[in-house]
Amino acid sequence: MKPFERLGNARTPDGSLLELYRHDGSYLIRANGIELMSQRRHLSEDRLAEVACVGLKDRPVARVLIGGLGLGFTLRAALKEVADDAEVVVAEFLAEVIEWNTNPEYGISVETLKDPRVRVVHDDIVNVLRDHAGQFDAIMLDTDNGPDGMIMSENARLYAQRGIATTVAALRPPGIIAYWSVGDDPAFAHALRGSGLLLETLRVRAHDTKGPMHTLYVAKPRPPRRDASAPRAL
């Protein structure tokens, strides 16, 4: 049996431990000893970008935001869904995760991050959302394990009512927000609908044919209601 080679680690503000491993030529990240993501199982991360960026290949100068770099799966998938003049902004809180992806010895995302459409921001995703109101055509949030976080307690605010409002405010209509979650979270779905969003829930496998099922929440702002009392154009 081939061994797991530990390559690096990072600590979150609340003390959680992230570790990068290499096993049989593939890379994975563990959080507090539990596998968080792996190069062998990333179908749901790919789908996150596909559902968020639908239609953007035909939209000039589209701008999208990804919360969480991970191992670059969602980023690579998003680049396939946007045109050559698009910008894909990736917000990553942990400097070590950025370093893992840019390390030429590992080759995890080195070529992807050289794409001129990509801009990596070393910052909290909440700060990036607040600083870019009305600027993104799609927002993909794959921070922690979704609403049921296991890495950073600070991530919980992103999934609370105020965090949802901040995310919606960063959209450029008609925009799409897609959330990745390790499983169903009825309370979070209720919060999204309570924020005035149209919601679609998708269940996607981690791998094409096997592995656990993950949940994608695809949210769109409701179109404004037409004032029935307003005069109609002739």
Quaternary organization: single chain
What distance lies between the first and last C-alpha atoms, to the nearest angstrom?
A: 76 Å
Mean pLDDT: 91
Element pattern in H and E:
EEEEHEHEHHEHEHEHEE
| Overall outline | globular
The portion of residues assigned to helices is 10-25%
SS-derived structural category: alpha/beta
Please summarize the sheet with the most strands.
Answer: 7 strands, mixed
> How many E strands?
11
Largest sheet, spatial ordering of strands:
7-6-5-8-9-11-10
How much beta, percentage-wise? 25-35%
Radius of gyration: 18 Å
Number of helical elements: 7
Describe, in short, the structure shown.
The chain has 234 residues and is an alpha/beta fold. The chain contains seven helices and eleven strands.
In terms of topology, how is this protein built?
Layout (H helix, E strand, L loop, with lengths): L4 E7 L5 E7 L2 E6 L2 E5 L4 H10 L10 E5 L5 H9 L5 E6 L2 H8 L7 H4 L4 E5 L2 H7 L4 E6 L19 H9 L1 E11 L4 H9 L2 E9 L7 E9 L13
Parallel strand pairs: 5-6, 5-8, 6-7, 8-9
Antiparallel strand pairs: 1-2, 2-3, 3-4, 9-11, 10-11
Helix pairs in contact: 1-2
Describe this protein with a few key phrases:
single chain, 234 residues, alpha/beta, four-stranded antiparallel β-sheet, 7 helices, 11 strands, 24% helix, globular
Your description of this structure?
The protein is an alpha/beta fold and 234 residues long. It contains seven helices and eleven strands. It has helices at 43-52, 73-81, 95-102, 110-113, 125-131, 161-169, 186-194, and strands at 5-11, 17-23, 26-31, 34-38, 63-67, 87-92, 118-122, 136-141, 171-181, 197-205, 213-221. The strands form two sheets. It has a seven-stranded mixed sheet, with helices on both faces. A hairpin with a 2-residue loop joins β2 and β3 (26-31). α1 (43-52) runs parallel beside α2. The longest helix is centred in the first third of the chain and has 10 residues, at 43-52. The radius of gyration is 18 Å and the shape is globular.
